[in-house]
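FIELD: query
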Amino acid sequence: MSLRQGIAVVFTLVAIGGCADVGGPEPAEAHAGDEGHEDDGQARVTTLLTEPLADAPGLEARVLTVELPPGSSSPAHRHPGQVFAYVLQGAVLTGLDGEAPVRYTQGQTWSEAPGQVHSASQNESPTAPAKLLVFFVTEPGKPVVEPAP
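FIELD: result
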């Protein structure tokens, strides 16, 4: 299976069954680890799966959830790998490379190139959390997020 096909499978599975239980607990056995918190503890990043890519030696795929508390935002940052994000719950404002932020709501997706500056990142709601499913392709051991210069 190619990388593109793998990404399509992940998003298809989420669209078919994953959104029905967006707010419910995730099974313990699905957690491969916890990446910790972005933005000084505001965003909770949980790794669901980490898998080497057979068709792309030296790269791995990670499937993560990112939970954003109401009204939270993060400073400019970048991701060292390719990012594909799917909004499971809520609405987020995402700006890339200094462009005007775009509003993404439940069921919408966007992607980011490796190293692209994520200049704006905000949970649009002051009262409701937002949750993302993120498919991340990078070199093994690389961090999920790095500060932008």
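FIELD: remark
Residues 8-41 have pLDDT under 50 and may be disordered.
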